[in-house]
Amino acid sequence: MENFQVHLELDGAIATLKMNGDLTHTAEQRLINAYDKCATPKTKHIVLDFSQVEYINSAGMSIIISMLTRAQEIQQEIRACGLSPHFQKIFNMVGLSKYIMHFENLQDALQGLHAQKA
Amino acid sequence: MENFQVHLELDGAIATLKMNGDLTHTAEQRLINAYDKCATPKTKHIVLDFSQVEYINSAGMSIIISMLTRAQEIQQEIRACGLSPHFQKIFNMVGLSKYIMHFENLQDALQGLHAQKA
Amino acid sequence: MKKTASAKSEEKIVRLMIPSTFGYEKIAMNAAAELAEIAGIPPDRSQDLCTATAEACINAMQHGNKMSPTTSVDILYYLKDNTLEIEIYDHGAGIQKHPPKPVLERKLSKKDAPRGWGIFLIENLVDQVEFGISSRHGHVTRLIMKLQPAEVV
Amino acid sequence: MKKTASAKSEEKIVRLMIPSTFGYEKIAMNAAAELAEIAGIPPDRSQDLCTATAEACINAMQHGNKMSPTTSVDILYYLKDNTLEIEIYDHGAGIQKHPPKPVLERKLSKKDAPRGWGIFLIENLVDQVEFGISSRHGHVTRLIMKLQPAEVV
Ligand SMILES: Nc1ncnc2c1ncn2[C@@H]1O[C@H](COP(=O)(O)OP(=O)(O)O)[C@@H](O)[C@H]1O
Ligand SMILES: Nc1ncnc2c1ncn2[C@@H]1O[C@H](COP(=O)(O)OP(=O)(O)O)[C@@H](O)[C@H]1O
Question: In Å, how far is B50's CA from the nearest CA of chain D?
Fold first, then answer.
């Protein structure tokens, strides 16, 4: 049983990564593979949708940090949405909230971006 | 920490018992106390709202059976709503579904009754 | 937990000890649910297993351990290739005589007590049930759920 | 679990053993959540305790038991009058030197590896943490959550 899936949606300069399941060690390969597909300067914004993620552990945080490192190298912005208050707190503790803005839901996360695009 | 609450609403011949928490041994006294308040021939219909009940064990089933025994003695009808598919199956196994009709939600359970009342 | 057709996956064992106090059976249920998910058991069958596990724990607390709060109920979970097995141990003498099938109408007419559904539920919810006495651990109720054939990946 | 001002409630002990396999830490988390509920710990603090428990289990599997799937992580839960304590045991030599506080910017600039958040999270999420070696059980991480004063009923 694989308990992590990721679904990538590309829309111009915006890539949305919808995750489902537990963001832990076992998620690494799938998430990296998905990010590889949008790790190009053409993609300016990455939106991580956590609304279907129930559990994130320190290994999951490390995957996000690796992704952020790569994104910064190509001037990509990463946004997040759907984190529970508990994991918003953890993002804050680790310092990720300084670099990854959090929105309540996917619509809010995409709103400003689509305005830019238009 | 008390993990079972019951809220009684009386409306003419209809009594609604909204339960919240686990329907187990520890629920017995509270549920019986609530039923005592509507165990009169004036109340013709009892609606048990299980939508906020997550766990029912065999002791909880026994409490419902005791209540049904008393209700039958005074010609009260008992209806239920909000049981999960799992507990609908258990009600069916035990035979309770022959005596207690189940509705998806409280509104559906009350609908026919209010028509009768009017 | 993805299995390949060739790989022989090892047995996984989880062990839990809870006090004979009502409410603590939920810990045993949650562990059953988690293992059912790891084993790929579908949600409805997982709930069946959880209810059966809770009832076996409650019987172990009540009839086996006589509600002594310092006597534990021991639960062993075995995740094997084709089954998830849960053994619930208590320190009593075990079931002397299999109880007759409960009949709701006898209870509604007060011929029988309203209680007495535990074993009936257990037997109807899992694929196989065994009751036994182990010299080392006391009385055991063994619940067995069959797993679907491993997906080939 | 309602406590009265006068009644001295007894300590409750729950014990769990899981294999050193990623994913099984969720069983330990769920047990922590259930005990937190019994203890009346509010949901946000319960989630803190669950995350800390999971991280301590993962460290026990990785660094203590070197991911040997047949070596178990043992978890003891003590529900006392004023605290909920969780001890996570592994069979390793323990933490040799307390790791320095991780700094995100050092990780983003690749000066440090992206990992290394477990102990930092544990220490920030529970009221008290202790690391130690027990001659009987091996290395232990002890997580302590303080309970609110018992409600008078
Ligand atoms: N673990 C056990 N040890 C000894 N006796 C048991 C055990 N479990 C069940 N029994 C016996 O079987 C009877 C029926 O059990 P059950 O169907 O669960 O209903 P109930 O517990 O409500 O009586 C019990 O009354 C008891 O005599
Ligand atoms: N149970 C343990 N036994 C031995 N060493 C440990 C244990 N837990 C943590 N450590 C040591 O502390 C270091 C930091 O742990 P942690 O903060 O959880 O980050 P990570 O596990 O990602 O390295 C580990 O790399 C390891 O050397």
Answer: 21
Q: Kindly provide the ipTM of the predicted complex, given to two decimals.
A: 0.93
DSSP string, B3-70: -EEEEEEEETTEEEEEEEEEESGGGHHHHHHHHHTT-STT--EEEEEEEEEEEE-HHHHHHHHHHHHH
Amino acid at C107: K
Pairing mode of beta strands B101-103, B77-81: parallel
Q: Who's near B1: CB < 8 A, 6+ residues apart?
A: D1, D2, D37, D38, D39, D40
Q: What does the pLDDT look like over D33-86, one tens digit per residue?
A: 999 999 999 999 999 999 999 999 999 999 999 999 899 999 999 999 999 999
pLDDT value of residue B112: 81
The domain locations on chain A are 4-117
| Cα distance between residue C27 and residue C31, in whole Å | 6
Token pair listed for D70: 């047949």
Mutation test residue for ligand 1: of C53, C63, C139, the one with most atoms within 8 Å of CB: C63
Mean per-residue pLDDT, B4-29: 96
Which tokens belong to A86? Answer: 């508990």
* Structure confidence at residue B2 as a pLDDT band (50, 70, 90): low
Q: Is residue C5 part of a domain?
A: no
Residue D5 lies in a domain: no
Q: How many residues does chain D have?
A: 153
With residues binned 3-state (H G I as helix, E B as strand, rest as coil), the percentages for chain D, rounded to 5, are 35, 25, 40
Which option is the CATH number for A4-117: 3.40.50.970, 3.40.50.1370, 3.30.750.24, 3.50.50.60?
3.30.750.24
Q: Alpha-carbon distance A65 to D101, whole Å?
A: 16
Picking from C22, C110, C117, the nearest residue to B61 by CB comes out as C117
Number of domains observed in the structure of chain C: 1
- State how far the Cα of D44 lies from the Cα of D29, in Å rounded to an integer: 14
* Ligand number, closest to the Cα atom of C62: 1
β-pairing, C83-90 vs C138-146, is antiparallel
Tokens describing residue D32: 């922590």
Sites in chain A below the pLDDT cut of 70: 1-2, 115-118
Closest alpha carbon to C52 in C88, C15, C14, C4: C88
Residue B73 has pLDDT above 50, yes or no: yes
**Strands B45-56, B77-81: parallel, antiparallel or unpaired by DSSP?**
parallel
Count of Cβ atoms closer than 10 Å to residue C137 Cβ: 13
- The mean pLDDT value for D130-138 works out to 86
- Rounded Cα distance between C152 and C137, Å, is 38
The ligand 1 atom nearest the CA atom of C121: 17
Domain encompassing residue D126: 13-148
